[in-house]
């Protein structure tokens, strides 16, 4: 029974994690719009979600789907679960080159940021409605 509940909530939970990470990458692109030689990055959401769902299906629904980060010295910080530092990140191909080597196109980044925020809100609303539905069934 618990596995079925985990499976039901797993999709939107994982989608929220990847959307959050993508939002951070897009915000980083926007913040570095004037940095010479900065290469814009993005997360392929569909591929990342499929990979996370496949790995969580193999390991069990309680898995975070993340990649463990090795620490080689006592002063190293522990990594957070989710996408590894470069796993799932792709370089964005600019439609117009720039003299300073920066590939950030603000119109593209703003549109992707707004689109990702909208999808994040949708996933959050769906997850919230699923939990409310479960609570109403439990409470009778």
Element pattern in H and E: HEHEH
The outline comes out as extended
Q: Work out the number of β strands.
A: 2
Span of the ends, CA to CA? 18 Å
Number of domains: 1
Structural class by SSE content: mainly alpha
Major sheet size, sense and barrel closure: 2 strands, antiparallel
Q: Biggest sheet: strands side by side, in what order? A: 1-2
- Average per-residue pLDDT, rounded, comes to 83
Round the Cα radius of gyration to an integer and report it. Answer: 18 Å
Descriptive account of the structure:
- By secondary structure, the protein is mainly α.
- It has one domain (2-139).
- Helices cover 56% and strands 4% of the residues.
- The chain is built from three helices and two strands; from the N terminus they run H-E-H-E-H.
- The protein has helices at 2-31, 45-59, 106-139; strands at residues 41-43, 89-91.
- A two-stranded antiparallel sheet has the order 1-2.
- Helix 1 (2-31) packs antiparallel against helix 3.
- The model is unreliable at 61-67 (pLDDT under 50).
Fill in the keyword field for this structure.
3 helices
In short:
This protein is mainly alpha-helical. The protein is built from three helices and two strands. Mean pLDDT is 83; it is low at 61-67.
Helices and strands, with pairings:
Elements lengths: L1 H30 L9 E3 L1 H15 L29 E3 L14 H34 L1
Antiparallel strand pairs: 1-2
Helix pairs in contact: 1-2, 1-3
